[in-house]
Batch of 2 targets.
Target 1
Amino acid sequence: MGTVQKGMPHKCYHGKTGRVYNVTQHAVGIVVNKQVKGKILAKRINVRIEHIKHSKSRDSFLKRVKENDQKKKEAKEKGTWVQLKRQPAPPREAHFVRTNGKEPELLEPIPYEFMA
């Protein structure tokens, strides 16, 4: 009892993502990376289950895997090739900018003035 909550991780571990390596009745053991000066150490901490939650970072990857499997299956049935790699966003299309009757303003750096 008292001011320290049971199984609460230290403040340096709040919001960190880790891997569960041990499960007990009320807590789990987690491997978390901690930066100590110039190096990153894999620390093993025990935290009660009230203080942890599942990471959503893997959800988008698993969703993409399912979609790719579906695309592969459809392409195999059709006998075609399908692109599964993610592509970077293409450059924007060329377009004209309307000035609405105003003259474009030229921007340039202020000339350097030496003051002695």
Target 2
Amino acid sequence: MARGRKAGALIKNITGKDFELMKGIARTGVTSHYDARNQIGLSEKRLKNLEKENYITTKNVVVNKGTNVIKTYYLNDKGKAYLKANTDIKNFYRSNERQIEHDLKLSSIYYSLDEKEKETWKNENDLISDYKTNNPNETLSTMIDATYKIDNSIVGVEVTTKNYTREQIEEKFRIADEIGCNEVIKIEA
């Protein structure tokens, strides 16, 4: 009589690609199926196994004013625990489904960077924490979405939506200058 495969863990070891996906989600809150497959190079089977083992969760989200549905990935508790034990990531970015197109754009910017630049990525939560530590008596009204370093230059990242006023955008650029950004990339979601 033939025996089936033993029941057991589908994920025995976290690969470099798995790790890259989880770090990206931690830093940007969400990763699109497109980026997981095409930027990172994960297979469908591997993504399904990461989900079955509770490292990530999958959600279908509506984008483009309700005209498209895309598959996205978020961290589960097991993925967060793995990253806490194996990285120095302190602040996990929390994606907001009400601004999913904003967060997906931020995520795609992150995945477009080279590995060295990704390792310098600071999300909005990191930047707020740093600002409050360095300026305990200052009131903070806004913060840019992220920063990363190229050589010795700090690049700010701001993804705007049609809801942003000119004054809000100007304030984002002012705070970027205050925290030491040498340039700011502004992208419309």
